[in-house]
Amino acid sequence: MSNTREQILQTTCGLMEKQGYHGTGLNEIVKESGAPKGSLYHYFPEGKEQITSEAVLQSGKLTATRIQNGLSENSNAAKAIHDFVLNIAHHVEASEFAAGSPLTSVAMETATKSERINAACREAYSLLETAFKEKLLECGFTKTKAEELGTFITAAVEGGIILSRTYHSGDPLRMVAKHLKVLLSQ
Amino acid sequence: MSNTREQILQTTCGLMEKQGYHGTGLNEIVKESGAPKGSLYHYFPEGKEQITSEAVLQSGKLTATRIQNGLSENSNAAKAIHDFVLNIAHHVEASEFAAGSPLTSVAMETATKSERINAACREAYSLLETAFKEKLLECGFTKTKAEELGTFITAAVEGGIILSRTYHSGDPLRMVAKHLKVLLSQ
DNA sequence: GTCTATAATACGATAGAC
DNA sequence: GTCTATCGTATTATAGAC
Which of A3, A54, A56, A183 is 20 to 30 A from residue B66's alpha carbon, by CA? Predict the structure, then answer.
């Protein structure tokens, strides 16, 4: 894939992570990415919706991979997820309270406004839920429990990121880590 | 308080709930609220940041009251919170997947961009956490546990709302309700 | 593929009359 | 308190040269 195209997508992810969909302009993306200005509509002829959809999906795939890798470091599901969420808390603080991905903001802003971007957000969230679910399956949870808890963990972590980003502190995520461990250790 | 001023705040809440902070224009607020156009900067001389800060805080107070009222219907904390979250699931579906308040979107979009709006979002989230915490205190949880779980419940519900809004289904919130009940029944 | 220039529109904010 | 008009600057998107 072209380097310019890839650079545009990565810059879009970074900017929308900080300021959301409507808060990020195409001119800003072109400027910060260093991409040739004329090439934006060459690579993305359907405009902002296309760029955003592709950026969100790419970000979802990357996050799902990070979840898989993070969870593989520990054979116990409860401890693996606990430690993984603690790592997110650390990353949120180290990055001056970035969200980690553009998904949350973009999903909320566009859920009932753009069918195309909403579809990309659904797919991205499915990848995250599945990543948690598969760890639970490996660790002996039933299929039903693994699915339910995959959704619940995704929700709790997502909410923890919002609170940590808002409070400018990793502590809410640390609470999420702690009580997810309790729930999963039952 | 003036009716026009109040109408502007409520319209702001409704629009930002659907499309976030940057996605909502002041002209749009004026138009939809039916407020006299010239009165916007009369009531809110500091502009969009002031309107948004006040709208977020007002919405937080309203949501906290709804939590208090909702939880008061049941003397058992686990069951009260379970039923309350089920109610949110129903409301999200009945409202065609509205977020219930502008807080999530606005908090994510402005966390590192506007000190003033961020302060309002912090205060709003504190009110929500406290509402859950006080129910747990009433039901015999220790102060520490009540505080920790107040944060955890807020995060899980917030994440559930994001997923339900994105998937256009109340089911993720129903999963949150179910597993919060398990956690709180221990 | 990349460029500049620009169309058409929206934005937040302000001025000044009444 | 409310009005209209408008400033200056963004926005997304397109046209046409190279």
Answer: A183
